[in-house]
Amino acid sequence: MSEAVRLAEALIARRSVTPADDGCQELIAQRLQRIGFDCEWLMAGPESFRVTNLIARRAGNRPGPAFAFAGHTDVVPPGPLERWSSDPFVPTHRDGHLYGRGAADMKTSIAAMVVAAEEFVAARPDHAGSIAFLLTSDEEGPSVDGTVRIVEALQARGERLDACIVGEPTSVERLGDMVKNGRRGTLSGRLIVKGIQGHVAYPHLARNPIHQFAPALAELAATEWDRGNAFFPPTSWQVSNIHAGTGVGNVIPGELAVDFNFRFSTESTAEGLKQRVHALLDRHGLEYELDWVLGGETFLTTPGPLSEALVAAIRAETGVTAELSTTGGTSDGRFIKHICPQVVEFGPLNATIHKVDERVEVASIETLKTIYR
Q1: 98 — phi, psi (to 5°)?
Q2: 225: phi > 0 → left, psi -120 to 50 → alpha, else beta; which?
Q3: What is the mean pLDDT of residues 31-57?
Q4: If 0-12 CB within 10 Å is exposed, 13-18 middle and 19+ buried, where does residue 42 land?
Q5: Please, which pLDDT band fits residue 237 given cuts at 50, 70 and 90?
Q6: Is 74 considered catalytic here?
Q7: CA 50, 54, 57: angle at the middle one, nearest 5?
């Protein structure tokens, strides 16, 4: 069994349900310290939701670029244990796959990164530049005391990176078929449209917020927010929840609640989208309250040295030509972009992430390690 597989098993066996780390980072730090990495711990968050962050760095013997691997040691809860074919925190081999919570998202990636660094340093102890690891236990949670705190600490010291690979599971059909070179932004809104409650038989004595909002809803749904670009699809606006009424059939509701979300491209900004929504609602004469939550800003790494090197390594080890893509949700790349001009994501297949019986193909772990190296 390869060293990367053994380390992946050791990490999966630790019950690091967010924000717990359960010793994952300590295990990683011990290995990195043996090959000359300096390790720094950043604990953050309240005692009830303590987050573990690790910055590990190895300086080379001469000037050169600063490269980092980034990832998270926390995992989502396993869900109903009876639905799993085996204990989610007991790494199990079946049918050529390694099963366990975090196998794909993203303990296998971290294991492959660590062993890749060990092999690289053994072969090139006098390497130029520096190698770093940025690890958190708050990626699957609210993401307020994790990588964002690491970035703030590095910014305060004036430290920057030149390139960073985040180990998110990006592959779709085959290992290496997709690399994320950016992500859309996410902006959510909670809209309360105010009316006047009354009896359905006396509409002149009430004001129905559902009727009032309907034309605005139609316009919001039909609006072209932007046309996207070569790297991003057009910005989308979607309603996720809508609710009004008291539960009986003879009462006009007094208010309407709407939850919606933008997934936006670099052709739009969060502030610009907010302004357009407010202008539309005002034009329709609505009385309303609107609260916003910016879940993540866009980031984009245009094709260049990092993506070219990664795509070449993938092709050399798998024969696959990786597609650069910005689809999917958010990642901690949205924070790292503030200290690093080149951020990409690459990791194993994502078909089983967050699911029951999460797994990764065992043979792919060694290949992933070699690509990272």
Answers
A1: -100, 120
A2: alpha
A3: 97
A4: middle
A5: very high
A6: yes
A7: 170
Helices (H), 134-247: 147-156, 209-222
How far is Cα of residue 20 from the mean position of the Cα atoms in its chain? 17
Give dist(CA 190, CA 277) in Å, integer: 12
Average pLDDT over residues 85-100: 98
Answer whether 361's CB lies under 8 Å from 96's CB.
yes
From the candidates 139, 345, 357, 361, which is the catalytic residue? 139
Q: Are 142 and 330 in contact (CB under 8 A)?
A: no
Q: Is residue 365 within 8 Å of 112, Cβ to Cβ? A: yes
Any catalytic annotation for residue 47? no
Q: What is the mean pLDDT of residues 177-203?
A: 97
Candidate list 9, 74, 357, 361, residue with the active-site label: 74
| First-residue to last-residue Cα distance in the chain | 18
Give the pair of three-digit tokens for residue 328: 């999917």
pLDDT value of position 83: 98
Helix axes 3-12, 24-34, angle to 10 degrees: 150
pLDDT above 90 coverage of the chain, percent: 97
Question: Global pTM?
Answer: 0.90
pLDDT in tens, 140-160: 999 999 999 999 999 999 999
pLDDT of res. 330: 86
Q: What is the CA radius of gyration of the chain?
A: 24
Give the DSSP per-residue string, 320-360. --PEEE--SS--THHHHTTT-S-EEE--SB-TTTTSTT-EE
